[in-house]
Design a protein that fits this description.
39% of the residues lie in helices and 19% in strands. The chain is globular.
Length: 272
């Protein structure tokens, strides 16, 4: 179990180095060879890929984009002993901090990478997560899918999610990340790790929707923050904040001058 935990943590950390594995000099552990994430920002996921949802119904990815909402893609497998649960729990905890709920402003797809898993297991996992999430209405927007190896590979390859089956341990080795997709099915953002702050989720969803799903204040937030790929999270955009602060200062000064002029003219008017 200690070894398994260590491997899971290694896989969780490997997300940060995934785009630069080729630049590393030291060899990777044998368990992690061929495992990582290669970013394909701006590319499309295969919307015609077909799966089975938790009810046993045959579906295509396109069905989850018909609403015009951005989509969070969560890859793993339901019988995973550790890392997948950490990723999904981290996503759920991040969503708990949002006023938005799956099915309201965005969709969530939790897709098993194990072709042997059934929709019955997917249904059980969904019931458990929806109950723990505490928002029954999320069931309409959080979907649990299973499929054949060929269809699974189409999706994982499209987002650059590289994983491998370890026959000795009878488990998959994989990295930890969420994939945020636009309403058109394009890859908008990769969020790495096992913890996802509400701010990062909110900004990633806003970014994927090009600000359309948020309020005016949300669009201001999107302007003031940018994604820091080195840290794997959204950070203040100093230049934009300085510009915004300068514009606000000009508006305040202009408003003050206008008020002063009006007061001056009011006092100068003897008829007033």
């Amino acid at each position: 179990m200690k070894t398994l935990r260590a491997l899971s943590l290694i896989a969780a950390v490997s997300f940060a180095a995934a785009p630069v594995f080729a630049q590393r000099q030291e060899p990777l552990p044998a368990e992690l060879e061929g495992v990582g994430i290669e970013e394909h920002l701006g590319e499309n996921v295969p919307l015609d890929a077909s799966f089975t949802d938790e009810t046993g119904r045959q579906v295509t990815l396109a069905e989850y984009f018909e609403s015009g909402r951005p989509v969070i893609l969560n890859l793993g497998y339901f019988s995973c002993p550790m890392l997948c649960g950490l990723v999904t729990n981290g996503m759920m905890e991040g969503m708990e901090g949002l006023t938005w709920t799956p099915g309201d402003r965005f969709e969530v797809l939790t897709l098993s990478i194990d072709p042997l898993e059934s929709h019955t297991l997917a249904k059980l996992k969904k019931q458990n997560y929806i109950k723990e999430f505490g928002r029954p209405e999320a069931a309409t927007g959080w979907h649990f899918l299973t499929g054949t190896e060929a269809q699974i590979k189409r999706v994982t390859e499209s987002v650059g999610f590289q994983y491998a089956w370890n026959d000795d341990r009878k488990e998959y080795a994989h990295a930890a990340a969420l994939f945020v997709l636009t309403p058109e099915g394009k890859i908008s953002r990769y969020l790495y790790g096992i913890e996802y702050s509400p701010k990062d989720l909110r900004l990633a969803l806003l970014e994927a929707s090009e600000g359309k799903m948020g309020s005016a204040f949300d669009r201001i937030l999107l302007y003031c923050f940018h994604y820091d790929s080195a840290k794997g999270r959204y950070a203040p955009a100093a230049m934009n904040m300085m510009r915004g602060g300068g514009l606000l200062t000009i508006l305040v000064l202009g408003g003050s001058i206008l008020v002063m002029k009006r007061r001056g003219s009011h006092r100068a008017d003897p008829a007033a």
